[in-house]
Amino acid sequence: MSQFFLEFGPLLWLITTGLVIIALIWLAWLSFTGREDEAAYGPSADPGEVEHTAGQVSKLLWETMELKASMINSVQAAGLVKYDAYPDVGGEQSFSVAFTNPQGDGLVVSSLHGRTNTRVYAKPVRNWGSDHNLSGEEISALDRAREYTLPTDSEDLEAQKTA
Predict the structure, then answer these.
(1) What pLDDT is recorded for position 157?
(2) Cα 121 from chain centroid?
(3) 112: β partners
(4) What pLDDT score does 120 carry?
(5) CA atoms within 13 A on the CB side of 63
(6) How far is the C-alpha of 160 from the C-alpha of 147, rounded, in Å?
(7) Which pTM does this prediction carry?
(8) Of 106, 83, 107, 110, which is closest to residue 96 (Cα–Cα)?
(9) If the chain, 163 residues long, is cut into consecutive pieces of 10 residues, what is the mean pLDDT of each piece?
(10) What pLDDT is attached to residue 106?
(11) Closest by CA position to 104, among listed 70, 47, 52, 143
(12) DSSP state letters, 17-76
């Protein structure tokens, strides 16, 4: 190994020194031309491209606000309760299901299954209640829907996290 360095050592030293000098000259040239940032971080962004991207972000923010506004009145929760409506019919074939938005507006649908017939009732719901009399099962369906309702703003989300 020492024989290798005796023969090629001066040549290796010359090549290494030359590469270091070339690198220093290149860095000096970049700093004098104002392109050192480009060498370190890549080419700078085109101002037109930055404006285009900013426009796209603004459009996405606007569309997100529109979607959030339209979601306020959409059905976001459902609660289901199955039960035996009549003593002579088993298997919990009757049910009440509530469909609501975050404010508790929507409807409750109940299906009462008997041996000879099935009856279906629908009742409007406003603010987690109804002007119509609600059965215990319908109230339970509303309570289950309320459990699955997502918060509508950041304060509600924080309150849910601390609860």
Answers:
(1) 47
(2) 36
(3) 119
(4) 95
(5) 6
(6) 11
(7) 0.56
(8) 110
(9) 69 82 82 61 68 88 86 87 88 92 92 91 94 94 88 53 51
(10) 93
(11) 143
(12) HHHHHHHHHHHHHHHHHT-HHHHHH-SPPPHHHHHHHHHHHHHHHHHHHHHHHHHTTS--
CA-closest candidate to residue 81, choices 137, 1, 13, 153: 137
Q: What token pair was written down for 86?
A: 């009549």
- Interacting residues of 3 by C-beta distance below 8 A, sequence separation 6+: none
Residue 66 has a CB neighbour count (10 Å cut-off) of: 10
Burial 125-141 (b: 16+ CB within 10 A, else e): beebebeeebbebbbbb
The residue type at 113: H
State how far the Cα of 140 lies from the Cα of 130, in Å rounded to an integer: 13
CA distance 137 to 87: 15
Non-local (6+) Cβ contacts of 5 within 8 A are 12
Indicate the helix (H) or strand (E) that contains 112.
Answer: strand 106-113
